[in-house]
Amino acid sequence: MQSALISLASASIALVGTHFALSHPLRAPLVKTLGERGFLGVYSFVALACMVWMYFAFTAAPALDLPGSGDFGWAIATLLTLPAPVLFFGSLRGNPALPAPGAARLVRRDPIGVFRVTRHPMMWSFALWALAHLVLWWSWRTTIVALAILVLALVGAHLQDRRKAVQMGADWAGWEARTHFWPRWTRLGSAGRGVWLAGIAAWLAMTWWHLPAGGIAAGLWHWIG
């Protein structure tokens, strides 16, 4: 079992390390050598290989080898995960951080929707998921994966700011001045009714699926199950 945890930690470090390396210092030379499609192929292959490695190491590790944080932890985890899909769905439209045409136009506008909360709503949705699982403290395997996702999300968001500043100059500097890295949670209502409805529906579905997938009732189902 210890070897499985070592393997999982190694796979998690590999996922985070290769992502940062390929997204930043190695991206330009690889794109120059392989072209954009070739680079995306290499990036996708490396990421998939690391995730497959993580999956098999995760399933081989003990499921419940920590004491857990009880109902107090479950209450915090429930509150943390609820806004996560709201931030995620809200980030899919009009996100200047995504590699899509028109990013320069998007950063010149005033922030709307979830971008009034944070300029990295997608990254924070992953970070909230990771924090919730860290708070629950029920297994080393979950803790290792959650730490990897947390670092990937928040350090990745910081590095993304640096890369975009180089690529977009004053436009990105203006966007940073009008937005926030650390979320302004009181502005979650800015996400809009449609995004909130989609987020709540996804939250209910994912937390319901947690029981057949992981054997543990999560979210609302933990309290009514």
Order of helices and strands: HHHHHHHHHH
Which parts are unreliable, with pLDDT below 50 for 5 consecutive residues or more?
A: none
**Total DSSP helices:** 10
Largest sheet: none
- Beta-strand portion reads under 5%
The first-to-last residue Cα distance is 31 Å
Using DSSP, what is the number of strands? Answer: 0
What is the averaged pLDDT score? 93
Helix content: over 70%
Globular, elongated, flat, extended or rod-shaped: what is the shape? globular
Q: Radius of gyration in whole Å, from Cα?
A: 19 Å
Helix/strand/pairing category: mainly alpha
Task: Explain how this protein is built.
The structure is a single chain. This protein is mainly α and 225 residues long. It is 72% helix and 0% strand. It contains ten helices and no strands. α3 (70-81) runs antiparallel to α6 and α7 (140-168) packs across α8. The chain is globular and about 50 Å long. The two termini are 31 Å apart. The mean pLDDT is 93.
